């Protein structure tokens, strides 16, 4: 078998076994939505403050750790959720006071570095508070599969998909229809103009970081229920980067679509073409896909800003 | 300062362009070099050489490389670990394929291999910049590590998947491999750092370095005044990767002794980026200060509870270390976003006027 036919053989497999292909696709969509949930938090903060928030992944971890920790101490699920939400809002206020305010007007790379410092701090802090062993997060969604039209579908993944959909719809309404949402968009467009209109920049930043924290709770619950609450959760932040590249840094729908493309792409590539090169291409496939995409369309699928080219 | 530049009359262009125009500076640097070559190998304990000085030198070289790319040429890179891995694995392949080759030549050769790979991954920088470029370099990081993990040829088909430094001598003294003393490895590392630090200092203040800074500050204006973006950016990627590659080779050959791809994962990229930012973007001195700071902080944090007599569990200590590390980075960014090198500059300015500030 020549190298070309080896590359093409997976297409035959796809045609011959469409059910399996559908299952791979659904697995990819589910994984992609998980990435999207993290990417959403990035987009929110980037849109409103121009800060590339590397700490989003660790915020997800922190939210999940807090939730699990509270539940282990005997709080019922709804109460634990409310307390976690309050903690995330408090965190947003703290970050604005301690990190963003002193660094206002600094270069983007400095703010980016600051969020990396924040990542280290939050990781240590979260583990200090709640311990560093892997925890199970059980919010009552069974992690089991059911057959729908002959295709195996995971209930948990379906719930995640549904949640992501609701979240995006809610955020879209929030951004387009509410007074705060309009203020957020104004700040994103032009800080100075927004300030001169009387929009309180500092309050807006707290709100954005709080909303990103709340999105982090949702992402944390989904990831935690799927693979346990552990340190590797914060690493998914890196996977959210190619998602953002594909979708564009400033687009909420872009985060979702980008996540889906990355999820489906890497799962199909891993299952069908991975064995050809020894497997484990999931680790870099997303980045190389994003790299190839960048060369063709640098602003992403839905990004508004045209990147200045040399 | 207790001395200043008053009274020096330069009569030649060469004197005008010297790196250290003041006699006292030259004496100080020369004394520092002699001291650095002689004192630690003779007087310092094995622990200090192995745990502090050798990693400091190796990481300073990597920080120098990243500072050329990010600090001088303004291209953000998160692929440092990947380029260091290229250096380490090619150094291993070269020195095992040609056992008679002088080990001192292996380091620059490994750097050249890394430079080639760096050029390849630098190509996207022609169309994209900033965070987009950072993601592109992340692709390099993950792809290269995966490649070294998957292709057994790179580790000479060793079943363990690790590469280890082969025993090699320079002038009859064992400098790499398990037999080499920490002192010998330290001297080799210091020699590399001094030579290539000197090269870097001269690169960044010459024509090439000015072209890099022009591209960094405003690429369109740079192009108009005749700096070619394509060549300049690729050169920055190539030279930066050359330094990172040598640092990677040093990491395995002079510091760790043996390593697998885990030693070059994404955390290394971040660590080196921290060094550059804390030390000072666009400063050769800053690369050294940053590397020293980042190497010393964990050692300091590990030993403080011990000195204070506080019993602490390993897990608690690890968590506190993370918190303090993160908080320190935030603190330094807030106090001085231009890094330790800028702090040093401010101190020097203040000292000029001391004790009669106006």
Structural notes for this entry:
Chain A has 310 residues and is an all-alpha fold. A two-stranded antiparallel sheet of chain A has the order 1-2. In chain A, 45% of the residues are buried. In chain A, helix 2 packs antiparallel against helix 9 (201-227) and helix 10 (236-247) crosses helix 11. Chain A has twelve helices and two strands. By secondary structure, chain B is mainly alpha-helical. Chain B is built from 14 helices and four strands. Chain B has a two-stranded antiparallel ribbon with strand order 1-4. Chain B has a two-stranded antiparallel sheet with strand order 2-3. In chain B, helix 4 (80-97) runs parallel beside helix 6 (131-150). The radius of gyration of chain B is 21 Å and the shape is globular. The mean pLDDT of chain B is 87. The interface between A and B is large, with 50 and 48 residues.
Characterize the quaternary organization of these chains: heterodimer
Q: Please work out how many helical segments of chain A DSSP would assign.
A: 12
Unreliable spans of chain A are none
Largest β-sheet summary of chain B? 2 strands, antiparallel
The geometry of chain B reads as globular
The helix/strand order of chain B is HHHHHHEEEHHHHEHHHH
What is the string of helix and strand elements of chain A? HHHHHEEHHHHHHH
User: How are the strands ordered across the major sheet of chain A?
Assistant: 1-2
Estimate percent helicity of chain A: over 70%
What structural category arises from helix and sheet content of chain A?
mainly alpha
């Amino acid at each position: 078998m020549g190298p070309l036919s080896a590359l093409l053989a997976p297409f035959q497999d796809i045609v011959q076994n469409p059910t399996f292909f559908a299952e791979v696709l659904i697995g990819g969509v589910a994984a992609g939505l998980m990435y999207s949930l993290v990417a959403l938090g990035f987009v929110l903060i980037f849109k409103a403050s121009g800060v590339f928030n590397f700490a989003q992944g660790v915020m997800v971890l922190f939210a999940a750790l807090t939730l699990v920790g509270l539940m282990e101490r005997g709080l019922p699920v709804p109460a634990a959720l409310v307390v976690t939400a309050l903690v995330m809002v408090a965190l947003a206020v703290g970050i604005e006071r301690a990190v963003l305010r002193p660094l206002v007007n600094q270069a983007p790379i400095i703010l980016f570095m600051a969020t990396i410092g924040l990542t280290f701090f939050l990781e240590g802090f979260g583990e200090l508070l709640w311990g560093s062993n892997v925890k199970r997060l059980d919010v009552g969604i069974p992690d089991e599969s059911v057959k729908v039209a002959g295709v195996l579908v995971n209930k948990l993944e379906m719930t995640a998909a549904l949640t992501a959909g609701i979240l995006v719809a809610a955020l879209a309404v929030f951004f387009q229809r509410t007074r705060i949402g309009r203020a957020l968009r104004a700040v994103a467009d032009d800080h100075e103009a927004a300030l001169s209109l009387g929009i309180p920049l500092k309050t807006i930043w707290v709100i954005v970081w709080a909303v990103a924290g709340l999105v982090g709770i949702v992402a944390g619950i989904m990831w935690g229920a799927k693979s346990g609450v552990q340190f590797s959760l914060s690493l998914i932040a890196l996977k959210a980067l190619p998602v953002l590249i594909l979708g564009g840094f400033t687009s909420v729908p872009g985060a979702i679509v980008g996540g889906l493309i990355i999820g489906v792409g890497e799962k199909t590539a891993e299952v069908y073409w991975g064995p050809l090169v020894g497997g484990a291409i999931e680790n870099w496939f997303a980045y190389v896909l994003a790299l190839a995409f960048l060369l063709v369309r640098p602003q992403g699928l839905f990004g508004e800003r045209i990147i200045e080219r040399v | 300062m207790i001395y200043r530049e008053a009274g020096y009359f330069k009569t030649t262009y060469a004197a005008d362009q010297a790196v250290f125009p003041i006699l006292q500076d030259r004496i100080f640097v020369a004394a520092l070099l002699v001291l650095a070559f002689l004192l630690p190998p003779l007087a310092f304990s094995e622990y200090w050489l192995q745990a502090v000085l050798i990693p400091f030198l190796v990481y300073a070289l990597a920080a120098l490389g990243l500072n050329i790319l990010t600090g001088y040429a303004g291209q953000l890179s998160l692929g440092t670990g990947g380029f260091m891995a290229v250096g380490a694995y090619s150094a291993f392949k070269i020195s095992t394929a040609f056992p008679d080759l002088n080990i001192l030549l292996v380091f620059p050769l490994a750097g050249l291999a890394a430079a080639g790979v760096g050029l390849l991954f630098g190509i996207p920088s022609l169309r994209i910049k900033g965070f987009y470029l950072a993601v592109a370099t992340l692709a390099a990081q993950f792809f290269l590590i995966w490649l070294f993990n998957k292709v057994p040829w790179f580790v000479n088909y060793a079943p363990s998947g690790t590469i280890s430094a082969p025993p090699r001598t320079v002038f009859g003294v064992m400098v790499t491999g398990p037999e080499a003393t920490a002192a010998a490895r330290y001297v080799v590392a210091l020699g590399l750092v001094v030579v290539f630090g000197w090269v870097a200092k001269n690169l960044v203040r010459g024509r090439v370095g000015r072209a890099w800074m022009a591209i960094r500050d405003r690429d369109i204006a740079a192009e108009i005044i005749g700096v070619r973006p394509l060549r300049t950016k690729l050169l920055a990627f190539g030279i930066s990767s050359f330094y990172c590659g040598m640092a990677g080779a040093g990491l395995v050959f002079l510091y760790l002794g043996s390593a697998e791809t885990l030693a070059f994962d994404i955390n290394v990229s971040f660590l080196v980026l921290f060094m550059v930012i804390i030390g000072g973007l666009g400063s050769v001195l800053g690369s050294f200060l940053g590397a020293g700071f980042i190497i010393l902080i964990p050692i300091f944090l590990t030993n403080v509870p011990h000195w204070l007599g506080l019993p602490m569990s390993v897990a608690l200590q690890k968590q506190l270390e993370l918190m303090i590390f993160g908080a320190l980075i935030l603190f330094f960014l807030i106090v001085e976003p231009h890094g330790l090198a800028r702090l040093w500059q401010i101190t020097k300015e203040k000292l000029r006027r001391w004790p009669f500030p106006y």
